[in-house]
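Quick one - first record:
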Amino acid sequence: MRHYKKGRKLGTDASHTKAIKKNLCVALFKNDRIKTTLERAKEIRGDVDRVITWAKRGDVHSRRLAIAKLGDKDLVREVFSKVEQGLFKDRPGGYSRILKIGTRRGDSAVIVIMQLVTEQYVAKEKKKDGKAVEKTDAPAPKKSSEPSADADVLEAVVESEETEEELEETDAVPETEADEPEAVEDEGSEVKAEPEGAEEGADEPENKPADA
């Protein structure tokens, strides 16, 4: 039974596993990112977060614990100074990120890139329904009861279109009225022409008996 021996073996004995974890942590703090297997990255994630938490405290006891964990005084001094300058200031945890990039040829081990999260942390507010929303310092826009400028412009455009339609209707009515008298005049001329033809026809019979 493996009592008081939690963690992964990583295929080696206890002393070798401890050395691997320490070297990986040192490499990560020096280079801000490392390339390793998924199991090793998950195994050192807790140690990395623990060292950064000690750096946030900043007291002598935390500094000695970090030196015992990493075994490098200069590196611990550098990490503590970065944290004092504001790195990881507002972030409550999760100081590292693991990204899978594929499998290793030969044993098909999952290869990942582990890196420190140096981006600025954005706090989130939790609503009643449980959904998280990003917190921003800018106030929310207020809804004004007064009509906006866009609404006034739309109303003016609609009114202008209505007035144009009314003017077109008024202009179209006189044209139809003016056309009607012409048609009447034409009909009258035709009516008047009929009596002239009738008179001519009436004169013809009168002349024929005279010739006879």
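second record:
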Amino acid sequence: MTNDGPQFAPEGWEQQSFQPDRTSEMTGDYLLPPMPPPPPPNNSRTPLIIAIVAVIVLLAVAGAGWIVWSRISGVEGSPTAGSLASDMPTLSPTSGARPVDLPADAVQCEAVTGPQGEFTRSARGNEATSCPFAEEARIAYARSGAASESSRTVTVYSPVTKKLYDMSCRQTAPGPLVTCTGGNDAVVYLY
């Protein structure tokens, strides 16, 4: 017998409605993985600070490089030995140094640097010699070693002609007085 009509529970029974189990659908492959939390808002200033520090460092390196380059290449407006000479006091032999008798034709030159080895001053011996050249000879000879009665050749740069010259130098008098000759008839006295 088929009963197509509504079914009623026998007396004393409560009618229950059928609810399908949907937990398998919720926990199965039907669910998507949970969404990650959204990223925090980007109000960090770290990239800006890094960029500013990088620019400052680059400017400092470039400035230092320009100063070194300008001193090496002699660019206008950069300090050179000649321009610094006016700021430096004139040096004379220390009180412990023995006095030196310069030849009558000698013209004392202003020192553009401090003492070089045992030599504090230079003099030019004739009109063919400039004081800047005499000072360069003093520096070159002092760098080559102590004064000696043996002749020693040093190469000297001329700030006037912008050329290099070989000078033969030796101690010619006690005290120490060194005489250098060479180049274009140049004569230099170092003391």
